[in-house]
Amino acid sequence: MRDAHRKTSVYENVGKQFNKAADLMRLDPHIRRILSKTTNEISVNFPVKMDDGRIKMFTGYRVQHNDTLGPYKGGLRYHPAVDIDEVRALATWMTWKSGIVDIPFGGAKGGIQFDPCVCSSSELERITRRFTFALGCNIGPEYDIPAPDVNTNAQIMAWILDTYLSTQPPHTRQANRHVVTGKPVEAGGSLGRDKATGQGVVFTIEEWAKEKGLNLDGATYTVQGFGNVGSWASRLLKAHGAKLIAVEDATGAIANEKGIDADDLTNYVAKTGGVKGYPGAKETDHKTLLSTKADIFIPAALENQITAETAPLLQVRLVAEGANGPTDPAGDDILNKKGIDILPDILCNAGGVIVSYFEWLQNKRSEFWDLGEVDSKLYKKMVSAYARVRDTAKEFNTDWRTAAYIVALRRLEKVYKERGIFP
Ligand code: GLU
Q1: CB–CB of 76/152 below 8 Å?
Q2: Which residues in the chain are classed under CATH 3.40.50.720?
Q3: Which of 93, 139, 149 to mutate to test the pocket of ligand 1 (most atoms within 8 A of CB)?
Q4: Using a 6 Å cutoff on CB, does residue 346 contact ligand 1?
Q5: Per-residue pLDDT for the chain (423 aa), expressed as one digit of tens each?
Q6: CATH 3.40.50.10860 in the chain, residues?
Q7: What's the 217 CA to ligand 1 centre distance in angstroms?
Q8: Does residue 375's CB lie within 6 angstroms of at least one atom of ligand 1?
């Protein structure tokens, strides 16, 4: 898996995708100028006391791309490859995502450049709390709402919540619980948020399979990345009778043409930290995984995995993008020429932010929805967004990524025209 030390600019990819859609739909040039820039870019350096008593400096970011459709919204990532370029790209994708699925949020993203895998839990807690403190009023329940992303989880969101509330005046604390989403359920999280991104991926795959006449029972799939998104998508596809035949993550790649049990692999990864050495499969390598013949490939890890170099290897009918930005523009062209369908990230993985919106609403209203209610509302949102993207692809005779951009850009263009530019 291409990882930490990639040099390609992800934000440049966003620019290319954006320009292609803006040209095709003839986006108003003034609005185009506005949307091609981020609004705020916050960069903080902060000290943390490590377990051995040393003080280490960390660099964290929060980029706020646009808040025309609602408060800034997006995850926080902990990874050595986090930098301003990546966070800009991820923040921009969040704006499009909320626009496509029609939720009242703008786009933001943040992160800290470090490897959480080599930190103790108490170091992780101090890093998280100090970062939250450093961000100060740059986040807020009606302003900018973080959530989990790569290497962050519900526990980390609980620390953010606690730190943020502790720094607010006592009488406002209860009203501020929606400052972060993806919290543990007991701490104000929503049922169904943990699986939401994977669930959204599977809902879009179901729609695609229905239209293509593919029976998911017996269909084969491969997965890159076995964190929250990859493991949930795999477990939910298992319930359809689909067969997981190869998986890779940062520790290695494994394959078994007879099928890998996604629940068993999830338990193994929880114990060992990765798929490497899983006894129910044989070891394989990155190139073999990408070349594996299957119906569906789900990239659910990092950006720039499907490129000019790797796209020619793929032998699947569908790429369902659980990750953000897994396909670069050169990779896109190759997949389109090969006739491989793509469920683009800003549609396919939007289930996470949709259920974040439901969590935010429940907190604001002091409500607690049951899982059936969350799932059925998520289903409705995903399926209608899927239909909008499909119909727009037909209308413009274009690929689905460009169509997804057009759905979001049309909505933003309309609001800008209605509101005008201050002053
Ligand atoms: N990090 C997730 C994403 O990329 C979720 C964001 C959110 O829930 O705000 O969509």
Answers
A1: yes
A2: 196-348
A3: 149
A4: no
A5: 544 445 579 999 999 999 999 999 999 999 999 999 999 999 999 999 999 999 999 999 999 999 999 999 999 999 999 999 999 999 999 999 999 999 999 999 999 999 999 999 999 999 999 999 999 999 999 999 999 999 999 999 999 999 999 999 999 999 999 999 999 999 999 999 999 999 999 999 999 999 999 999 999 999 999 999 999 999 999 999 999 999 999 999 999 999 999 999 999 999 999 999 999 999 999 999 999 999 999 999 999 999 999 999 999 999 999 999 999 999 999 999 999 999 999 999 999 999 999 999 999 999 999 999 999 999 999 999 999 999 999 999 999 999 999 999 999 999 999 999 999
A6: 39-187
A7: 29
A8: no
**Residue ID of nearest Cα to ligand 1 atom 9:** 74
Query: Residue 143: CB partners within 8 Å, gap ≥ 6?
Result: 71, 72, 137
So which residues are the catalytic ones?
Answer: 109
Q: Which residues, including other chains, have CB under 8 Å from residue 2's CB and lie 6 or more apart? A: 302, 304, 305
Residue 308 makes CB contacts below 8 A (sequence gap 6+) with 328, 330, 331, 334
Is any ligand 1 atom within 6 A of the Cβ of residue 324?
A: yes
- Cα(346) to ligand 1 centroid in Å equals 10
Distance 148 CA to ligand 1 centre (A): 6
What is the reported pTM? Answer: 0.97
CATH code for the structural domain at 196-348? 3.40.50.720
Q: Is there an atom of ligand 1 within 6 Å of 289 CB?
A: no
* Vertex 221: Cα angle to 219 and 227 (nearest 5): 140
Residues 39-187: name the CATH superfamily. Leucine Dehydrogenase, chain A, domain 1 (3.40.50.10860)
> CA–CA separation, 222 vs 273, rounded Å?
19
